[in-house]
Amino acid sequence: MSKHLIRVSPILLVIPFLIVFFLFQLLPFYWVFKHSFFDDFEQTWGLTNYYNIFQSKLDIKSILSSLSLSFWSTLLGLTIALWGSYSLTQIKQGRLQHILLSFTNMSSNFSGVPLAFAFLILLGANGCITLILRQLDIGVMNIKSTSGLILIYTYFQIPLGILLLYPAFQSVKREWKESADLLGASVYAYWRYIGLPILIRPIIGTCIILFANAIGAYATLYALSGSNYLVIPIRISALITGDVFYDPYTASALAMLLMVILVTITIINQFLISPKKIGEKS
Predict the structure, then answer these.
(1) Could you give phi then psi for residue 211, rounded to 5 degrees?
(2) Rounded CA gap, 117 and 111, in Å?
(3) Residues 186 and 102 sit within 8 Å (Cβ to Cβ)
(4) Which of 159, 162, 177, 191 could form a disulfide with 107 if both were Cys (CB 3.0 to 4.6 A apart)?
(5) Which of 257, 263, 262 is nearest to 56 (CA)?
(6) Quick count: other Cβ atoms within 10 Å of Cβ 36?
(7) Greatest CA separation for the chain
């Protein structure tokens, strides 16, 4: 009897998780997927919603804006995160390194409405830094413009990138660099033939995570500009909450396109970092 209970109890413990996963993951996904093919005007099923998306200037603009913001913030955030995570590994383990890691971890959770509020206080139309720069007759950046939004997106990409890359840089042992120096290898040769082949997987994986993090961002942008700057999440929100342009079926199709973009990028990521490809590059 006791043996039978021991075998059954792990399954019973998983059941609540499976119920929650079904209710909040699978069931909404099924609803979105199904209704993305429903034409509310003709009351028929088909690809009309997807066709309308690529005929709508607003939808095309939201897709292009999302891709542009995600690409540039990922590129800039990843570049700075690479230098930051490498610099952390060069600091001796102690209180300073612990403080910097704790600050990075805290910063990675500083996003959404609080981040938008902080940038408005600092660089908004009447922000403290903006007022100081005006007194000095120095031009200021409009944080609601494309360049300003790239700056904000990059800000919350950097700490996440550092946290993801720091363990990878820790796996690169100092002894390998010392051995390469003794054998006469240059800094370029060391990173080309030793460091980069080891780090290429985490770098590409981090790039994918940062891109997904940016393309799905909603709260920060909405708090800054409302619906004035179109990206895919803002457009989806406008379609399911608007009184005039209420269209949950087109919103479902946009959500599916967003998922297709993320799945495609993930597949490319798996292809690029497969062991066979890594071996060919090395």
Answers:
(1) -65, -45
(2) 10
(3) no
(4) 159
(5) 257
(6) 21
(7) 82
CB hemisphere CA count around 262 (13 angstroms): 16
Burial profile 37-71: b = 16 or more Cβ within 10 angstroms, e = fewer: bbbeeeeeeeebbbebbeeeeebeebbebbbebbe
Cβ-contact 37, 248 below 8 angstroms = no
Place of tokens 């080309």: 192
For the chain, the structural domain boundaries read: 58-281
Return the closest-CA partner of residue 223 out of 143, 158, 278, 106. 143
Q: What is the CATH code of the structural domain delimited by 58-281?
A: 1.10.3720.10
pTM of the model: 0.82
Q: What digits encode the pLDDT tens for the residues 111-136? A: 788 888 888 888 887 888 888 888 88
Amino acid at 128: C
